[in-house]
Amino acid sequence: MSIKNNVLERKNERITSLFGAGRTVTIQGTTINGHSGIDFVPEGWVITLEEGEVIAVKDSVSGVSIGTGNDFGNYVHVKVNSRYVLRFCHLKQGAIVKVGQKLKKGARVGYMGTTGFSTGVHLHFEIRDNGVAIDPLPYLEGEIALSVVPTTPSTEPLPPANTSRHVIVAGDTMTKIAGKFGLSLNAANPQIKDINRIIVGQVINLLSPEKSTDN
Ligand SMILES: [Zn+2]
Q: How many A from CA of 19 to the centre of ligand 1?
């Protein structure tokens, strides 16, 4: 893989853990399922890959804090536009940005650390699409841009009414979810294409079985 959008100032990032559902991490007996971002080394300054506005900063953690297993330690969230937010986690204490600050592309957001649920110095980087963690890799490789889809004109068809919302929980598989909604796996028709990438907390919408209205 070749990274075109750099998240480290020295542009020397290496990925140590990819995004995905099948990954588990255990630290001191606490296990989390699924990985909502991509992890990077080596230690250095973290920069924002897009210009944006700082919308959240945590800087109170000075060491490892296992907590619930979803503890990102010190972090900075940068809002790119109405759709996408970048999250930079496990940062070293000593915030250099504050909420409301506008950042240019490439500006420093913090220094890599190992605060929170972490076994060593690394960056946990996430892209949230309307709040849902998506796989950052296609963006990092320059295959997609973080642009806002234009507002759909009123002539666009509305989403079907027979849609069921499901929030992914630990242990879910697409087969299980399809069963829950009385669908074949093929008919489940999730929003996501890669069933290996469902992650805990992700929201998917499934079409209910077709009602036979003919004859
Ligand atoms: Zn991570």
A: 8
Taking the centre of ligand 1 as the mean of its atom positions, its distance from the CA of residue 177, in whole angstroms, is: 26
Mean pLDDT of 93-109: 97
Q: How far is the CA of 179 from the centre of ligand 1 (A)?
A: 31
Model confidence, pTM: 0.67
Residue 54 alpha carbon to ligand 1 centre in Å: 20
Q: Could you tell me if 80 and 127 lie in one domain?
A: yes
Q: Which residue has the higher pLDDT, 165 or 80?
A: 80
Kindly give the distance from the C-alpha atom of residue 18 to the centroid of ligand 1, in angstroms, as a whole number: 8
Alpha carbons 73 and 59: distance in angstroms, whole number = 8
User: What is the longest distance spanned by two Cα atoms in the chain?
Assistant: 69
* CA dist., res. 181 & res. 40, Å (int): 38
88: CA distance to ligand 1 center in Å? 10
| Under 8 Å between Cβ of 187 and 142 | no
The share of the chain scoring above pLDDT 90, in percent, equals 53
* Residue 200's CATH number: 3.10.350.10
Are 206 and 168 contacting, i.e. CB atoms less than 8 angstroms apart? no
29 and 92 share one domain: yes
Task: Tell me how far the alpha carbon of residue 128 lies from the centroid of ligand 1, in angstroms.
Answer: 14
